[in-house]
Amino acid sequence: SGPTVVSITPASGTTLGGTEISIIGTSFSGTPTVTLGGVACTGVRVLGTTTIQAGTGPRAAGTVDVVVTVGTAIATKAAGVTYVAPA
User: Fold this and answer.
1) Could you give the CA distance from residue 60 to residue 17 in angstroms, rounded to a whole number?
2) Distance CA 69, CA 67 (A)
């Protein structure tokens, strides 16, 4: 079966981007892509079949879906990350 996304830590970051997140799930492999509300993450690294680390890209404030694509398989975590304005 394809990948799944179970959780994201931390579940929020600033609108400036650059927050390092860990995505926990299943069936991660190869060179997946990760987007948050349609904005590509940077420095995506697979640390094993259950963990991906990535940096958030800049985006407007709001709660967004997390989408991990492995080959042709897509996993989505609805409302997985919230962007907030920097303090």
Assistant:
1) 10
2) 6
Rounded to whole angstroms, the Cα distance separating 30 from 79 reads: 25
Residue 43, number of CB atoms within 10 A of its CB: 10
Quick check: 68 and 54 in contact, CB under 8 A? no
CA–CA gap between residue 64 and residue 52 (Å, rounded): 18
pTM: 0.95
Distance CA 79, CA 87 (A): 22
**Residue range 30-59, pLDDT digits in tens:** 999 999 999 999 999 999 999 999 999 999
Instruction: Give dist(CA 23, CA 58) in Å, integer.
Output: 18
